[in-house]
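lol ok so funny story. i was supposed to be doing the assay writeup but got distracted and ended up predicting the structure for this chain instead. priorities right. anyway since i did it might as well share w the group, maybe its usefull for someone
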Amino acid sequence: MSENDLREGLRVALADEPTFDIDAVVDRARTAVARRRWAMVGGAAGAVVVTLAVVLPTLARKMPDGHVAAAFPGPSATSSRDLSAKLISRVRSELPQATDVRVAPGRGTPEHARRTVRFALDSARLELVVVVHAPGSLSTDPTRFCPAMTQTCEIVALSEGRIRVVDRDATRRVWEIRPDRTVVAVSGSLPDTVGDAVLEAVAGDPAITA
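and the output, tada:
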């Protein structure tokens, strides 16, 4: 059936219904089909995107404000010094060969905390940028973090209702969306020998909170 036949069929079938823009409906359907095709190309990661698009709104409705998962406490009165110490401890745990691990504070707001972790590894100076967004201060739609819909971006459903988004572009980026709607973003240009493990470990550490 051609697109013209489809449009005409809709007009006839809905002749007695209130007037609306059929062309706009078809255009929206075409956009939805294109998005589904991209999801199929993405394989398993794409399938997760489709599933999460249905599950997340339901979770948001069921999860009352202020809900805190047992393993992932929400933001507390953690001081700047405490957060920096926890980041240093985590990086040293993941990269015991790293030296001169330091944390520089960034521009923060009541809704998010920003830190830059700098360290030396195999005579190279590297850094990670960590931003912790307080619950509800950032959209928790995982597709928001893959705006270009590129093959380098992957969405993974984890245990305990957590969601991880990994973008393996030139600068690796990892976002972890927690059940209490906290979002932890970690980025850095790391060597392939390190991979995403450090970024994922920092983003997934329940001790790292706003």
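Residues 3-60 form one domain. The chain is about 35% helix and 25% strand.
back to the writeup now i swear
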